[in-house]
Amino acid sequence: METFRYIVALLLVTLVPALCIYWLLLHGFLPVWKRLGISASQYLLWAAVLAVAILISTWRDDFLAADYGFQPILATIGLVFLAGAIVFRIQIERFLPWQVQLGLPEIDPSGHAHRLITEGPYAHTRHPRYLQVFLALSGWALLANYPAGYVVALLWIPLMLIIVRLEETELHRRFGAEYTLYRTVVPRFWPHAAAGNHRVKA
Question: Looking at domain 2-197, which of 3.10.110.10, 1.20.1640.10, 3.30.70.1560, 1.20.120.1630 is its CATH number?
Answer without folding.
Answer: 1.20.120.1630
